[in-house]
Amino acid sequence: MASRTKGKTTMEVGGDGVAVITLINPPVNSLSFDVLENLKSNYEEALRRNDVKAIVITGAKGRFSGGFDISGFGEIQKGTRKAPKPGYISIDIITDLIEAARKPSVAAIDGLALGGGLELAMACHARISAPGAQLGLPELQLGVIPGFGGTQRLPRLVGLTKALEMILTSKPVKAEQGHSLGLVDAVVPPAELLNAARRWALDIAERRKPWVCSVLKTDKLPPLGEAREILKFAKDQTRKQAPNLKHPLMCLEAVEVGIVSGSRAGLEKEALISSQVVKLDTTKSLIHVFFSQRGTTKVPGVTDRGLVPRKIKKVAIIGGGLMGSGIATALILSNYPVILKEVNEKFLEAGIGRVKANLQSSVKKGRMSQEKFEQTMSLLKGSLDYESFRDVDMVIEAVIENISLKQQIFADLEKYCPQHCILASNTSTIDLNKIGERTKSQDRVIGAHFFSPAHVMPLLEIVRTNHTSAQVIVDLLDVGKKIKKTPVVVGNCTGFAVNRMFFPYTQAAMFLVERGTDPYLIDKAVSKFGMPMGPFRLCDLVGFGVAIATATQFIENFPERTNKSMIIPLMQEDKRAGEATRKGFYLYDEKRKAKPDPEIKKYIEKARSVSGVNLDPKLAKLTEKEIIEMTFFPVVNEACRVFAEGIAVKAADLDIAGIFGMGFPPYRGGIMFWADSIGSKYIYSKLDEWSKAYGGFFKPCDFLAERGSKGAPLSAPLEQARSRL
């Protein structure tokens, strides 16, 4: 056992003969190994005591349990804790001790019962919930499977089809829906929850209510032939949607064994699979992402100074285009009053119209009521001047990427905004020092870089300059959290973290195509690797205008390591601009469905002759593995530069930025984590080989060369890596 305890349970026995066992492990009462051991000893004591007739399990401070404490997996993987034998928790404790006990138990659920929390509740003989509590099994998104009996009990309580939907999508249901599904026996007001659970437990003990062992129920399971059909369909869908993941199929295997051979065999299969999935590379990656995402808000020298975020009561946004309207939508959805400023009535009307359309799509999908829509829209006010900026706490500039326009705006803002007001820019590439050049209050200038569409994409890059105050960073981190974004704090440079790391991604693809690689094979290989789409499909989606403007920034700033291709400019000359014109690298029908265009060859050939590039027989016959390496190793190289320059505080921040900003597959752990899984030595040797054959674009940076030559991990902090060199 690890020496430091994490959480506990307490037990109180009332005069009514009910023992109330409370799970205590803030903030969500996660089930650490210590909590589970405490629960076991409390339960054994309750069963021994003659004054205990029934048991209620509940969670402290309005939360039942958020599930198994995932840091336990980390302890096992690092070898700091011995893994319990398969089935110790799910069979020995939850099934044979709690569910098979001769005294009944009731789960009193408030707030949430997720993962292992819901699995524990399902082993109780009844579940009473407060309204609105979240009930679900989200384990698959963490790379594991429900391992405390969830694969067996959920199908028996809600039916096989609904159980598979809940498990495979990781989506929870509210208590009210849980009640109609049969997952919850009653929904009562929070103030009455504990008393109602006590009465229910006594009623079971005195046979006034049924004593139900979920794991033995069969009335909601379909006949065997039908169950096999449902499971076959689920497996086929899973293979299509998650071809690179093994654990969802392994989970379905545990469900199937339980239905075919009985719940005991199912529990044993689940226990065996649970011990196997922890060792999968994809599981290690997803657990790394889980902790890294929670670590982005810890910034040394900023968040460890005891600074308290100031209350942001009102935000102004300059520019109502695609980005400005998206940012406004994200803010009003989280109850921030917003002023949207534009240069004229026509643009202002269009900007407000975009926000309205964003919200109306939620109404159409049934995710928002009409009343909530009107209430949210009432938080948005339009403006054509700065007069209404006199009481705002933060301004986010979201105009076109024009440096002199942005400089003028920042100079004007200082005249109208209060002295404490945060001055933020949503620029995606321009140096913030240049934007704030004419501004006296350099400590208030910060980058708030959202990704399009801003109300949907989960990443917020918080860009600090050398002058930005720690207080302003803390304030923006708090806003990011409140608008449900994953904020990553980065330094100021061309492209910041995400765009800079990934500029070689498209450039590498263009480099290969000009030398003979089929663009559609590149897209296919990259999609198969796990990206949402390949680089050419992405160029079509963002539009050639944006692609060229972005590429130009990097060609100007990093001329020694950029690849300048003529393919897109030549296509633009023929009025091809991507998906918007229905012609780019692909042809698009009226439903925006893409299909390859044979005409692309002529643009590639023309670009080749303009650039004086020759066909390379080796590059014309690349395998999928080689395509991935030649496309992503230059990204790893640039990520190493970003890390070495201190643009990112930790390598894990770059992992999260790439996943949430560019769609890098989470089950690969992020760009730096993935690189370390391959090995710095191998990546360095390949880049070195290509740079000798093809030039500076592939040249390994000093940081990668130093670590790669010795095989040191790329994501280790500088001093740690040096100790291994």
TrEMBL record:
Instruction: Please report the stretch or stretches of sequence annotated as the 3-hydroxyacyl-CoA dehydrogenase C-terminal domain.
Output: 495-588
Catalysed reaction(s)? Answer: (3S)-3-hydroxybutanoyl-CoA = (3R)-3-hydroxybutanoyl-CoA; a 4-saturated-(3S)-3-hydroxyacyl-CoA = a (3E)-enoyl-CoA + H2O; a (3E)-enoyl-CoA = a 4-saturated (2E)-enoyl-CoA; a (3Z)-enoyl-CoA = a 4-saturated (2E)-enoyl-CoA
UniProt pathway annotation: Lipid metabolism; fatty acid beta-oxidation
Q: Quote the Gene3D superfamilies the UniProt record gives.
A: 1.10.1040.50, 2-enoyl-CoA Hydratase, Chain A, domain 1, NAD(P)-binding Rossmann-like Domain
Stored Pfam families: 3HCDH, 3HCDH_N, ECH_1
GO terms of molecular function:
(3S)-3-hydroxyacyl-CoA dehydrogenase (NAD+) activity; 3-hydroxybutyryl-CoA epimerase activity; delta(3)-delta(2)-enoyl-CoA isomerase activity; enoyl-CoA hydratase activity; NAD+ binding
Q: Where in the cell is it found?
A: Peroxisome
Q: Which domain of life is it from?
A: Eukaryota
**Which processes are annotated in GO (biological process)?**
fatty acid beta-oxidation
Q: Give start and end of each 3-hydroxyacyl-CoA dehydrogenase NAD binding domain.
A: 314-492
Q: Which PROSITE patterns match?
A: 3HCDH (PS00067), ENOYL_COA_HYDRATASE (PS00166)
> Keywords, A to Z?
Fatty acid metabolism, Isomerase, Lipid metabolism, Lyase, Multifunctional enzyme, NAD, Oxidoreductase, Peroxisome
The GO cellular component terms are: peroxisome
- Would I find Isomerase among this entry's keywords? yes
What is stated as this protein's family in its record?
A: In the N-terminal section; belongs to the enoyl-CoA hydratase/isomerase family. Belongs to the enoyl-CoA hydratase/isomerase family.
Quote the protein name from its UniProt record: Glyoxysomal fatty acid beta-oxidation multifunctional protein MFP-a
